[in-house]
Design brief:
- The structure holds three protein chains of three kinds.
- In chain A, the strands form two sheets. In chain A, strands 6-7-8-3-9-10 form a six-stranded mixed β-sheet, with helices on both faces. Chain A has a four-stranded antiparallel β-sheet with strand order 2-1-4-5, with helices on one face.
- By secondary structure, chain A is of the alpha/beta class.
- Chain A has seven helices and ten strands.
- The relative contact order of chain A is 0.18.
- Chain B is mostly helical.
- In chain B, helix 9 runs antiparallel to helix 10 (about 230-265).
- The two termini of chain B are about 40 Å apart.
- Classes of the chains: A alpha/beta, B mainly alpha, C mainly alpha.
- At the B-C interface, helix 1, helix 4, helix 5, helix 8 and helix 9 of B face helix 1, helix 4, helix 5, helix 8 and helix 9 of C.
């Protein structure tokens, strides 16, 4: 069956420069990219390649120095509830319970308390956090905190979900578990996701599309379509094939980045 | 290559700009103040102009040579009281840190004593020690001693038993153990207290001087006396001197010490 | 705390007062300077029972001081938090006030008192104003530090979830800064307390605990002096343990945000 790919977000010649004069850093240099609707897109690249910067631009936390980002034809310049963001450090509000955190977006968008609570509880269930809705974040484990984070980002039903190395702070076991959980959740809604990670293993497990970035200044180096049905097998033949392909591309860029830092 | 020089001159420019920005509010405020007084809007008696205050400062230092004398006396009392507080505080603190029973007995007393404002002790001191130098020095002492004792206890108790054991195996005992292991190890806790205490002591000094009628010299006394002539200029000069030394003591003196010891040893946790 | 824990601290205190009583009784110490504890108690009671205009003298002193404390603390807290918040949010405001805080905060309130006596005379206006100023500084400083230290990720998280500027302010900045504000208030109240008593020594017009103690010292009524200090210690301990700590437990400690 041919799936018609609809473009959700377009990055046109996006450049991002930080700092001035002697201390300027060109994080992204002329990035052209299309993010497709209802697809899980992952961006991988060596450290410092600008992938997180890219995500911040998509979120509206920063503005491009030149070029533009269009979502459904409209320019993205500020953060807004049409998008959701999951941070690597969770960014949960420590003074709010799990329920309070998940309800935050709903209330900010005009839902009344009763409605917000109900919807929030649905997402808390989805994230397997039943019984913890009245707990404070500091009492939870890393994996649980990240699940709250995801529930919180999904609760107000944003069109696009942005995830910035969300499993980077977790230990290997929890990480694997979270990857599997994320796939399960994604299969339910098929949201448009832009996921950033430096782990190719993770990228191949999760994504429909993998974008490989070059070392700094960041450019799009390659784009891979991953057509393996889910849930995927970490040791399956198809999986390993794609993984090798992506790794080869990435290896080159990682080498470049190491050389850059040694000069 | 031009880049190196560019960077240096850029940094220099930044520094000047920084200092300029720091002073600017003062200059603006000072100018505004000056104009208010000169134009007669503000009463010159109650609020003398900055230029008058500076003039007074010059007079007190140069012509009358009086300010130095006040400062000297204040500092001599501060130094004496502070040193006594440090010695007593560390000694008592060490004893209490090492003897659990004594500590259990006296800890609550210590907490109670810390909570009494130093200034409240002064009337007692005035009755029992008179209205002179001794009272002020004792006030300074009391200002710092409780804090130092408290943090010495915490500091010494925080020294890992392993470090003590290591030293003991190498044959270090008694007083040697104290100076070579316990004291350095507890400096992390004691240093902030020493810094805090100099501030407390300075404030106790000023308070003590203001309330001790029989002393002749001292920054606090200078301000207090000025009231009898309603001399706002002298008061403001006094306040400036107090602020100046208050900040100086905290920033420079002990920051250096902290840097040389605890920071160098990598023991300071960046908060 | 076990039973032993309660008894042990009482030993030095009790022993101290016992020795004092005995020494006074047997004339080992000058009872004009160190009246026996029983004498202290008697003198305090006398003040308590002594009446003026139908009210107990001791209680009047106490209430006058408490009133001053309350007003000064309230003014200091409110203005402190406002200024601190403005400082935290605006770099311009911060640059203006920071040097003021750096240079004026270290000045003890009592040193400012003569100046204010010239400007405002003796009594309440001076005492309350100087008290408020002393309270203001640590609160403004801590509040501004708190707001400036807000974790930016939390701000971003709120923004992308659709919170408008006002909501970000009240739902992110404020709770985050709360820890710092608490510390500031603790410090501010301690300063308020010390400053009010100290200024009462020289600027009170006949009433107030500070005045009571000072007056007693001038007339060498040692009993009242000691009694006054004991009273001060008791009141302060009560305020610390009875009011501030429980409040902290209800908020900061629950959120796991206690700063050591």
């Amino acid at each position: 069956m041919k799936t018609h790919k609809k473009v959700k977000i377009t990055l046109q010649n996006v450049t991002k420069i930080f700092g001035k004069n002697a201390e300027r850093v060109v994080a992204l240099d002329g990035v052209n990219l299309e993010i497709y609707d209802n697809k899980f897109t992952t961006i991988v690249g060596p450290s410092g390649c600008g992938k997180s910067t890219l995500l911040y631009l998509l979120a509206g936390f920063e503005k491009p120095t030149s070029g533009g980002i269009l979502k459904d034809g409209k320019l993205i310049e500020n953060p807004g509830p049409d998008r959701g963001f999951v941070f690597q450090d969770f960014a949960l509000f420590p003074w709010r319970t799990v329920l309070g955190n998940v309800m935050f977006g709903l209330i900010s968008n005009g839902y009344d308390k009763k409605q917000a609570k109900k919807i929030a509880m649905d997402y808390i269930n989805l994230a397997n956090l039943n019984g913890f809705e009245h707990a404070y974040p500091h009492t939870l484990s890393g994996g649980m905190k990240q699940r709250v984070s995801i529930a919180r980002a999904l609760a107000y039903d944003p069109e696009v979900l942005l995830m910035d190395e969300p499993f980077g702070s977790l230990d290997a076991q929890t990480r694997k578990y979270m990857q599997e959980e994320l796939v399960k959740i994604w299969e339910k809604f098929h949201k448009t996701v832009v996921f950033v990670t430096h782990s190719v293993i993770e990228a191949v497990y999760l994504s429909d599309i993998i974008v490989v970035m070059s070392a700094r200044p960041g450019k799009v180096k390659a784009v891979f379509d991953v057509k393996i049905p889910r849930p995927r097998n970490y040791t399956g033949e198809q999986y390993l094939k794609v993984r090798k392909e992506v790794l080869d591309y990435l290896e080159e860029e990682v080498q470049k980045e190491i050389e850059m830092n040694n000069t | 290559m031009g880049n190196g020089e560019d960077l240096k001159s850029l940094q220099a420019k930044n520094k000047v700009s920084e200092i300029g920005q720091f002073i600017a509010p003062f200059l603006v405020f000072g100018l505004f103040w000056e104009i208010m007084v000169r134009s007669g809007i503000a009463n010159v008696q109650t609020l003398p102009a900055p230029s008058m205050i500076l003039h007074e400062l010059y007079v007190l230092i140069g012509k009358k040579g009086v300010l130095q004398c006040h400062i000297y006396h204040s500092f001599y009392r501060l130094a004496l009281g502070y040193v006594l507080a440090v010695v007593a505080g560390i000694t008592i603190g060490t004893v209490l840190a090492l003897q659990k029973d004594l500590r259990d007995m006296f800890s609550p007393v210590l907490s109670l004593l810390i909570s009494v404002p130093t200034i409240a002790w002064i009337p007692v001191l005035l009755i029992t020690m008179g209205l002179g130098d001794k009272t002020v020095i004792t006030a300074v002492f009391l200002g710092g001693v409780f804090e130092i004792t408290y943090s010495t206890i915490a500091g010494i108790r925080s020294v890992h038993q392993q470090q003590i054991n290591a030293a003991r195996i190498m044959g270090v005992r008694g007083l040697g153990l104290f100076f070579k292991v316990l004291l350095p190890g507890s400096l992390v806790s004691i240093m902030p207290a020493l810094r805090l205490s100099i501030g407390y002591c300075w404030r106790a000094l000023v308070g003590g001087e203001m309330l001790s009628a029989m002393i002749k010299w001292g920054v606090g006394k200078m301000i207090y006396d000025a009231r009898f002539w309603n001399d706002v200029k002298v008061m403001l000069v006094g306040l400036i001197v107090i602020a100046f030394f208050g900040v100086l003591l905290d920033r420079i003196m002990l920051k250096r010490l902290e840097h040389e010891t605890v920071e160098k040893w990598g023991m300071l946790v960046e908060r | 705390m076990t039973g032993k824990g309660y008894i042990l601290p009482l030993v030095p205190i009790g022993g101290f007062f016992l020795c004092w009583q005995l020494f006074a009784h047997f004339g080992f110490i000058n009872i004009a300077l160190f009246p026996a504890p029983t004498r202290i108690f008697t003198e305090l009671s006398a003040l308590f029972h002594q009446e003026i205009a139908g009210h107990s003298v001791l209680l009047t002193h106490l209430i006058v001081t408490l009133k001053r404390l309350f007003v000064a603390a309230t003014e200091g807290v409110i203005i402190g938090i406002l200024v601190g918040a403005l400082m935290g949010l605006s770099q311009k405001v911060y640059r203006f006030f920071d040097p003021v805080i750096t240079w004026v905060m270290p000045i003890p309130g009592i040193a400012m008192a003569p100046l204010f006596i010239v400007w405002m005379g003796f009594g309440d206006p001076t005492i309350i104003t100087v008290g408020a100023i002393a309270t203001f500084f640590p609160i403004a400083y801590n509040t501004s530090t708190g707001i400036r230290s807000v974790d930016n990720q939390l701000v971003r998280a709120a923004q992308i979830m659709g919170a408008n500027k006002a909501r970000v302010l009240t739902q992110v900045y404020l709770p985050w800064a709360a820890v710092y504000i608490f510390t500031g208030i603790k410090l501010g109240l301690a300063r308020c307390w010390r400053t009010v008593i100290a200024v009462e020594f020289i600027a009170a017009a006949n009433w107030g605990l500070g005045y009571m103690i000072w007056d007693a010292a001038e007339y060498l009524s040692a009993g009242v002096v000691y009694g006054g200090i004991i009273l001060l210690a008791a009141i302060f301990t009560f305020i610390e343990k009875g009011l501030i700590s429980p409040f902290e437990k209800m908020t900061i400690e629950k959120w796991g945000m206690v700063r050591i």
